[in-house]
Amino acid sequence: MEHKVFGSVWEFNFNHLNDSQRRILEFGLDTGFGEMNSLGFGFMNVKR
């Protein structure tokens, strides 16, 4: 049985964040920011 999976790639620019906002965002990324679904998606990769 074949399943088609549709996904997308989004890029965000967070250069305008102050130190407190940046730490909160980094905490979310470190703890698994994103919503998991039945196919196992729901993670984000940070490009630096």
Topology:
Elements: H1 19-30
Mean pLDDT: 77
Distance between the termini: 39 Å
Which regions contain 5 or more consecutive residues with pLDDT less than 50?
Answer: none
Helical run tally: 1
Order of helices and strands: H
- The rough form would be described as elongated
Largest sheet: none
Structural class: mainly alpha
Number of strands: 0
Q: In which range does the helix fraction lie?
A: 25-40%
Rg for CA atoms: 14 Å
Strand content: under 5%
What features would you describe in this structure?
With 48 residues, the chain is mainly alpha-helical. The protein has a domain at 9-38. It is built from one helix and no strands. The radius of gyration is 14 Å and the shape is elongated.
Summarize the structure.
By secondary structure, this protein is mainly α. It has a domain at 9-38.
